[in-house]
Hints:
By secondary structure, the protein is of the alpha/beta class. It is built from ten helices and eight strands.
Amino acid sequence: MRRGALPHGASAAGKPGEPGEPGGGRGGNHSPRAGFGAAAPTQDGAGRGGRPDEIAGDVMLRECVEWLFTPAGSTARGLGLVGETVAMGARHRRCRAAWEPHLQKCREVMLRAARMCPGRGTVVVCGSGYCLDVPVRRLAGMFERVVLADAVHPLRARWLAGKCGNVRLLETDMTGLLGQAGAWREGLDVGAIRSVAPEGLEEFEPDLTLSANVLSQLPLPVKAWLIKLGCGEDGVAQVCRRIVAAHLDWLWGLPGMKCLVTDTENRDVDGGEVLEETDLLYGATLPPGGETWTWHLAPRPEISRHFDRIRLVSAHIRSERPPA
Length: 324
């Protein structure tokens, strides 16, 4: 594979020189994942011997191997979700120190919700990913069963599940739309697109449900597909908002404890100046209160030498049951 080439099915967003991540310009889909194969040897290779091109080659090889050996269905691969997932792990390796305060806050909030939970039967984690922000082993020691639910389970999550005998992996579409996207054609009525409850979770009666930094990511594969079909910006934004709102309605309507951790706003900043900001929830609102903090997603030069990319994060814990 030539340097910079993408495997079939991997997301092309963010190739160097393009406006997405992690190229030089602002904009793009604001995914926290870096473009697949676009590693930054100046950070990932810090402290390692060898020329920069050798280090970059090693990094790309690692990503390609992980992409090839990560089990996933044809829909997830066709929509680029495996490449996006692998790229998330790569960005974490490059920005590990900058991410750690955010990841630690996430784990603390989730453990707080777990300790508040009166029942200790099942905990469901929506958007488990690499489980960098999810204290899987601690949860496995507190609950009879831990269900990790995501469209793609990377190798690290599979290794964690194997180490904990009561952790189950569930491959699921959190929006119910990914399987439909391949059949959409130009001229599609975007007003008719409606997100549905996550597949495969109806069999569980969770004592605790965690939505783990997935809310803002749910619309992105659908958004990319609709843009590819030439759908208008306003219509696409409305679909994204409905996807976000549907997940919130589903989560708050569940029995038991609920914990939401999500990024809400993207900001590109240069010192104290905000160069660009984007509402990641498309106008959908969260409950009042909660806890907030800043996630230093991409300190320079991860995306650009001229600005840092940060995220505003919000966490909410709710215990009330829905009305009968």
